[in-house]
Amino acid sequence: xxxxxxxxxxxxxxxxxxxxxxxxxxxxxxxxxxxxxxxxxxxxxxxxxxxxxxxxxxxxxxxxxxxxxxxxxxxxxxxxxxxxxxxxxxxxxxxxxxxxxxxxxxxxxxxxxxxxxxxxxxxxxxxxxxxxxxxxxxxxxxxxxxxxxxxxxxxxxxxxxxxxxxxxxxxxxxxxxxxxxxxxxxx
Length: 187
Description:
Layout: H1 6-15, E1 17-21, E2 26-28, E3 36-42, E4 44-51, E5 59-67, E6 71-72, H2 75-80, E7 87-90, E8 94-100, H3 101-110, H4 112-137, H5 141-151, H6 161-167, H7 172-184
Antiparallel strand pairs: 1-8, 2-7, 3-6, 3-8, 4-5, 4-7
């Protein structure tokens, strides 16, 4: 991505808010409007929601995971200003810079290089989304797991088995069996 001009960088840093969130913090809940972008400096965040397959036990689905250098948000809620259908959760003690939607829009309006940056960011986001959909189209849980591990080696050991299972659209037990197979070398 092209660097921002000095003037744009100064304007951005004037409106960013530095935040620390301890592990387990929920920064957005369903029904609330996503008013911020979260630039993750250090730590890990995820978005999740519940699928109501069975009234007795809704299934948790992890929609995305964001580590250092990534941007977390409730996408539809942020852009359309509608109530979120998802939770944003902090998975590790995290330091983030938040940018309000109002400041985000004003920076785009005032600084053409920031608008280009947002366009480049959107392209990156779409590529990540496309890689995720390709991952989920893999029929074999083992291949899905191995592809995830290749694409995101920096997440190794940082996710609970249940979160990884919900991200890869498989059960906790499938993840457990796959890890056992890999450890034994019998895959």
